[in-house]
Amino acid sequence: MIVVKTKEEIEIMRESALVVSRTLGMLAKEVKPGVTTLYLDKLAEDYIRSQGAIPGFLGLYDFPNTLCMSPNAQVVHGIPNNKPLEEGDIISIDCGALKNGFYGDHAYTFPVGEIDPATEKLLRITKESLYEGIRELKVGNRVGDVGNAIQRHCEKHGYGVVRELVGHGLGRTMHEDPEMPNYGKRGRGKKFVEGMVIAIEPMINLGTHRINHLSDGWTILTKDGKPSAHFEHDVAIVNGKPELLSTFKYIYDALGIVSDEEEEFRQNQLVL
Ligand code: MG
Ligand code: MG
User: Fold this and answer.
1) pTM exceeds 0.90, yes or no
2) Fewer CB within 10 Å, N or C, the chain?
3) Which domain holds residue 168?
4) CA distance to 7, 58, 116, 120, per residue, from 28 (Å)
5) CA of 109 to the centre of ligand 1 (A)
6) Is 225 part of any domain?
């Protein structure tokens, strides 16, 4: 069942999303060679609690930590541990927070120091595909339009689009209808309506789309051992169009990256 949100509820959800955005921005400064994912996890938990929120993943389906930390060939749902990050790694950080009864849920894949050009391109194209998908999230369009846009953008570059894991509606629960595959056919699937809030999250592999499950019961990794990237935004449908609730600007501020991608996205929405 799709649960649409009122304008007031969307504003509450914006704050939940921004708690996560600020958490990722705080972590951006800390991601470097030698740091363990368990250390970053603790920082995130403390920060989220300092914002009057609680970690959204901790205990959810019995997940043991605040962050899903998935380095290199891990796609998603990696469990933080004591292994230090190394120069040239990538680390996908997925974070959830619950505040005022609503969840925020978003993710970013960080380079650790210098990374090789092929992996750097994977991160760039995956993030681009996130916006390609979000653009399709408007009243009258359907679930398949978003998935198709993401799939086309990534497969153009020869990447594998993970099939088994999907984006989702978001609200008082972390995973609501509809499921949002990152692949699909235009014009297929459920229709979008005003007030929907959706977490769009392409999970894109440098090589094959096929995955394996680690024996810890959580971690998903690529079948061929090549890297995988994951970017996620929370988006509401307001006045018929997609509106970003989460933002990467805290990450960019922390890393000194100049990016107008979100502003550009908003401007494009105005002329559609
Ligand atoms: Mg997430
Ligand atoms: Mg999600």
Assistant:
1) yes
2) N
3) 7-265
4) 31, 21, 19, 16
5) 12
6) yes
Residue 76: both structure tokens together: 């998603």
CA distances from 157 to 19, 34, 122, 146, 166 (A): 33, 32, 9, 18, 20
Q: How far is the CA of 70 from the centre of ligand 2 (A)?
A: 14
Q: Which helix (H) or strand (E) holds 212?
A: strand 211-213
- Distance (angstroms) between ligand 2 centre and the Cα of 237 equals 17
User: Whole-number mean pLDDT of the chain?
Assistant: 97
Distances (CA, A) of 129 to 81, 140, 146, 259: 30, 21, 10, 16
Q: What is the pLDDT of residues 131-170, one digit of tens each?
A: 999 999 999 999 999 999 999 999 999 999 999 999 999 9
Number of domains in the chain: 1
Q: Ligand nearest 76 Cα, by number?
A: 1
Q: What is the pLDDT of residue 221?
A: 97
Ligand 1 centroid distance, CA of 105 (Å): 5
Q: Is a pLDDT exceeding 80 seen at residue 123?
A: yes
CATH of the domain at 259: 3.90.230.10
- Give the Å distance between the CA of 36 and the centre of ligand 1: 20
- Residue 118 Cα to chain centre, angstroms: 21
User: Starting from the edge strand earliest in sequence, which strands make up the sheet with 228-230, in order?
Assistant: 160-161, 203-205, 228-230
Residue type present at position 267: Q
> How far is the C-alpha of 120 from the C-alpha of 252, rounded, in Å?
16
The verdict on residue 214 lying in a domain is yes
Q: Is residue 167 part of a domain?
A: yes
1 in a domain, yes or no?
no
